[in-house]
Specification:
Blueprint: E1 7-13, H1 25-28, H2 36-43, H3 47-50, E2 51-57, H4 61-73, E3 78-82, H5 91-100, E4 104-108, E5 130-133, H6 138-156
Parallel strand pairs: 1-2, 1-3, 3-4, 4-5
Helix pairs in contact: 4-5
Length: 157
């Protein structure tokens, strides 16, 4: 039996997500991205030896698309993305996620389907492996776990 494969992954956050844990805590939770490491270590022991994880946050749609295209050029193996409000409005971001072909899990801090009507429309998840929504910062941990599981399954086939 061979050693588990190591993956080069990227977490991307869209607009207004640079202040997770500080902004509208009732809706988005009080834990910030800095809590993710300890959550992952408790939930997925040994994960640090399995993944190389990068992080990117931008408020601008074009900046996010530029970073996704660079991820494709860099041969990033998987993405966890929270497009923020662009989830509901960005055909361009959805198109980019489709053409780059990098497996991705979309995550959201809040349950977008229990919020305003506009937030129930999703223009970015069509080509995702799945969407995890409503668990605060834990959505990211669950997204990374699902992504690694998917990549492991794909690599054993």
């Amino acid at each position: 039996m061979s050693a588990p494969k190591r993956y080069d992954l990227l977490i991307i956050n869209g607009p207004n997500l640079g202040h997770i844990g500080k902004r509208d805590q009732k809706t988005y939770g009080h834990l910030g991205m800095d809590a993710l490491d300890s959550i992952l270590k408790n939930k997925m022991p040994g994960i640090d030896s399995r993944i190389k994880r990068g992080y990117f946050q931008a408020n601008g749609e074009g900046q996010i698309i530029d970073r996704l295209e660079r991820a494709w050029e860099d041969k990033i193996q998987g993405l966890v993305i929270n497009p923020g409000a662009y989830t509901h409005t960005s055909l361009a971001l959805g198109d980019c996620l489709a053409w780059i072909g990098i497996p991705y899990v979309e995550v959201h801090l809040s349950n977008i389907w229990s919020r305003e009507d506009i937030r129930r429309r999703n223009m970015t998840a069509e080509n995702s492996l799945g969407v995890i929504s409503g668990f605060g910062i834990m959505s990211y941990a669950l997204g990374l776990e699902a992504l690694v599981w998917h990549l492991d399954q794909r690599d054993t086939e």
